[in-house]
């Protein structure tokens, strides 16, 4: 198993860190055969996607699979954070996992390093048996914040992410379910995603109906804005600066489409990074978000919600 650790100091925007030094730990002997069945693994009720790379036992097989597009080469220690272009820094991942790791490295972790919030990086590939393909990659960064992410690439822990294929049946009345005290971050966000989706679908259906029955009438937007204000009051800090209400045929947030991919902690504050998947007319649309959370009187509150892409991040709530 390869274990990479790099101390990053004085890294500012536009600067590249010095080359890293890699240390190698001997890969453990082949583990016992995985006996967990698909029924034991936590999965969505929808169709199950099984990825199995247990038959790839040599670097040559991994490279051949990469040439066929089945796998993608990825640097354990990203070059932008001081990794070296060498075979000992290379690992082969399923394409979706490789893309996700690259996005985390370049568009989430690197900016946090440049802001002075992180100053170390380690990536720990985790294997099943003799396979040369990591079943998961655990990423941990230190500094002013404690950053952790685990990318499950294949195997019994792999859970394919669902996407909304079509517009859900909209609720006739929008009703907020305020988050209860002492909820975990995960349960708090699930509650927010569900309430946001209900508001979005209700607002979209109401707008479509009113515009079909009374074209040019816009009084219903006052009702939509008031409901949105109630949603923000239930989940955000008191002085939250909203960018304004917006809704669409498919909600940006929903427990079926959005999942946590990384977390960072500093005291009572959290940075939560999520990936959202929607499928519109057969096209996969992937979005990434950064939730800045603060715990107040035992209840999590959203301080800021940002949309993140390869150009930066913007407030969207």
Description:
- Helices cover 23% and strands 28% of the residues.
- The chain has 317 residues and is α+β, with helices and mostly antiparallel strands.
- A ten-stranded antiparallel beta sheet has the order 2-1-5-6-7-8-9-10-11-12. A two-stranded antiparallel ribbon has the order 3-4.
How are the secondary structure elements laid out?
Layout (H helix, E strand, L loop, with lengths): L1 E6 L15 E2 L34 H9 L4 E4 L14 E4 L1 H20 L3 E9 L9 E8 L2 E7 L32 H29 L6 H16 L22 E9 L2 E12 L2 E14 L2 E11 L2 E4 L2
Antiparallel strand pairs: 1-2, 1-5, 3-4, 5-6, 6-7, 7-8, 8-9, 9-10, 10-11, 11-12
Provide a quick synopsis of the model.
The chain contains 4 helices and 12 strands; from the N terminus they run E-E-H-E-E-H-E-E-E-H-H-E-E-E-E-E. The chain is of the alpha+beta class and 317 residues long.
What amount of the residues lies in strands? Answer: 25-35%
Percent helix range: 10-25%
| Low-confidence blocks of residues | 1-48
Order of helices and strands: EEHEEHEEEHHEEEEE
Task: Write down the Rg.
Answer: 22 Å
- How is the biggest beta sheet arranged? 10 strands, antiparallel
Total strands: the figure is: 12
Q: What's the end-to-end separation, in Å?
A: 42 Å
- Shape designation: globular
Strand order of the largest sheet: 2-1-5-6-7-8-9-10-11-12
Tally the helices: what do you get?
A: 4
- Look at the structure and give the mean pLDDT: 82
Structural class: alpha+beta
């Amino acid at each position: 198993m390869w274990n990479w650790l790099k101390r990053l100091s004085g890294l500012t925007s536009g600067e590249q860190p010095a080359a890293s030094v890699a240390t190698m730990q001997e890969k453990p002997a082949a583990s016992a055969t995985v006996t967990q069945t698909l029924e034991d693994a936590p999965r969505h009720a929808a169709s199950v996607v099984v990825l199995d790379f247990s038959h790839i036992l040599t670097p040559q097989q991994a490279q051949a699979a990469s040439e066929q597009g089945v796998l993608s080469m990825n640097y354990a220690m990203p070059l932008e954070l001081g990794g070296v272009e060498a075979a000992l820094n290379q690992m082969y991942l399923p394409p979706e996992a490789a893309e996700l790791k690259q996005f985390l490295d370049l568009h989430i972790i690197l900016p946090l390093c440049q802001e002075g919030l992180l100053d170390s990086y380690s990536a720990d590939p985790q294997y099943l048996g003799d396979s040369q393909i990591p079943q998961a990659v655990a990423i941990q960064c230190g500094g002013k914040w404690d950053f952790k992410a685990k990318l499950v690439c294949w195997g019994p822990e792999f859970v394919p992410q669902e996407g909304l294929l079509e517009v859900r049946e909209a609720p006739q009345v929008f009703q907020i379910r305020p988050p209860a005290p002492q909820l975990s971050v995960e349960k708090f966000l699930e509650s927010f995603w569900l309430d946001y989706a209900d508001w979005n679908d209700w607002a979209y259906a109401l707008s479509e109906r009113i515009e079909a029955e009374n074209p040019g009438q816009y009084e219903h937007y006052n009702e939509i804005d008031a409901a949105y204000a109630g949603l923000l009051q239930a989940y955000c800090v008191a002085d939250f600066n909203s960018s304004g209400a917006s809704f669409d045929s498919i909600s940006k947030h929903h427990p079926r489409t959005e999942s946590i991919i990384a977390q960072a902690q500093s005291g009572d504050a959290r940075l939560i990074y999520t990936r959202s998947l929607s499928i519109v007319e057969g096209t996969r649309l992937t979005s990434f978000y950064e939730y800045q959370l603060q715990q107040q009187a035992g209840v999590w509150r959203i301080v800021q919600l940002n949309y993140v892409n390869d150009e930066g991040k913007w407030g969207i709530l």
